[in-house]
Amino acid sequence: MGEGIRAARLLAFATPAFLLGGAYLGQYAFGLYPCEMCWWQRYPQFVALGLAIVALLIPRPKAVLALAALAIAVSGAIGAFHAGVEYGWWDGVTACSTTGRPAGTEALEAILDAPVIRCDVAPWTLFGISLAGWNFLFSSAAALALVFLLTAERKPA
Known about the structure:
Blueprint: H1 3-30, H2 36-57, H3 62-86, H4 107-113, E1 125-126, E2 129-130, H5 131-151
Antiparallel strand pairs: 1-2
C-alpha cells in the first residue's frame, strides 16, 4: 500500500476525531454549548469518523476515503455558512438549542432557566476567527489534502 493511502487514512481519521474532540472539550470543560448550526457541523464529522474507521479496516479504502473527504468538506461548508452568520455577512436560521434539563428540577423551571444558544453570536474566537470559522479552515484544508492524496499519481523511481 502506498504512503499516500496511509497518510489519507490517518488524516481522514484524525481530522474528525480532533474536531469532534475539541467541540466536546469546549462544550463540557468550558461551557461552550452548541447552537443548532454547531450540531449541523458535527453530523458530517461523525459520518467521516465512521468512514475513516472502515477505511482503516479494509484493504482497498480509496472509495471510502473519498466519501470521508466529502463528509469533511460538507462540515467545512456548513462551518463557512455558520461563520458568515456569526459575522453578520448573511442571515442564518432561527432555530436555537439549549443545554437540556438539569437533574432534580421541575420541567417548567428547567425550560425557563435553560440558556438559549444563539447561532448568530460567536461564543469564543481566536485571532478573530470563531469556532465555526476554524472548522471551515481545518475541514476544508483536510478535505483538499485528502483529495490530493487520493488522486496523486505515484511516480516511477
